[in-house]
Write a structure and sequence with these properties.
Helix content: 55-70%
Strand content: under 5%
Oligomer: single chain
Shape: elongated
Number of helices: 11
CATH superfamily of the domain at 1-92: Tetratricopeptide repeat domain
Number of strands: 0
Largest sheet: none
CATH architecture of the domain at 1-92: Alpha Horseshoe
Radius of gyration: 23 Å
CATH topology of the domain at 1-92: Serine Threonine Protein Phosphatase 5, Tetratricopeptide repeat
């Protein structure tokens, strides 16, 4: 099968309609979600290789707002029958909209915990739209939760490197996504340097340098990442050798250094 965007899917195991899937689909249309879910699992129990039952379970779970379980069922359905991505993508996008709006509503009520939960679930369900993860990155930066902000920016970058399978993006959309990916990648890189995660920052800096070979800042940051990353490894190895020789092993953090214009006590990353 070929998607509207030209993706050729592996055949996998095509879905086969069963009495469980037919009745379950009817229950879904009638709003009898739990009964549909029960039939989906009966179908899985009878034939775990038929992807239609996993799809049915995923659809039921989304309507029950159990998004973690829905994601698992969709992943399994698509693993068995890759072309199911064409049916699953609209469901994921619909769930993303619900969750993104739920996060906005929770934020307006100053319920930060619920805001984070909703936007994290939104990113899990459909990563191609970056808004939820970008909002999370901004929120985590404001709370100085740097590693959480890094994870959010990583989801943004991964999502923007992908394209939808059910429609072709316009040239304007492609350019917007490209610009946003570069901007998000730059923020991610600076946070990685700030947190001394030099090994992760290095490939991003090399990619930035390929795009802009004349950038003095990128060259400086790459040099710092290479130098400090190697220095940290040497310090760590020396520490471990000394600790083993003394029959004790206490691993602590390395001292914070200012990198790329960032300082721990006056972080300005946003």
């Amino acid at each position: 099968m070929v998607s509207p965007t030209g993706i050729v899917y592996e055949l996998g195991t095509p879905p086969t309609s069963t009495r469980f899937s037919q009745t379950g689909a009817l229950y879904l249309t009638q709003g009898l979600i739990n009964r549909a879910l029960e039939l989906a699992f009966l179908g899985i129990e009878e034939d775990s290789t038929n992807p239609i039952h996993y799809l049915l379970a995923g659809l039921a779970y989304t309507r029950l707002e159990q998004y973690g379980e829905a994601n698992e069922m969709f992943v399994e359905a698509q693993r068995i029958y890759p072309a199911y991505e064409l049916a699953i993508e609209p469901e994921r996008e619909s769930a993303w909209i619900e969750l993104f709006n739920a996060g906005i509503a929770a934020y307006a009520q100053e319920d930060i915990e619920r805001t984070i939960e909703a936007w994290e679930q939104a990113g899990m369900m459909w990563g191609l739209r970056p808004d939820a993860s970008l909002n999370l990155a901004t929120l985590f930066n404001g709370e100085e939760r740097w590693d959480d902000a890094i994870a959010a920016y990583q989801r943004v970058v991964v999502g923007l490197e992908q394209d939808p399978v059910t429609r072709i993006l316009s040239p304007e959309e492609v350019q917007t996504r490209t610009d946003l990916r570069r901007n998000s990648e730059d923020r991610l890189t600076q946070l990685l340097l700030f947190r001394e995660r030099f090994t992760e920052a290095e490939p991003l800096l090399r990619r930035h340098l390929e795009a802009d070979p004349a950038s003095i800042r990128v060259r400086g940051d790459l040099a710092a990442a290479l130098y400090l990353g190697e220095e940290a490894r040497e310090e760590h190895e020396a520490f471990l050798e000394g600790a083993v020789g003394d029959h004790r092993l206490i691993v602590g953090p390395f001292p914070v250094r200012a990198v790329g214009g960032l300082k721990q006590q006056h972080a300005t990353v946003s």
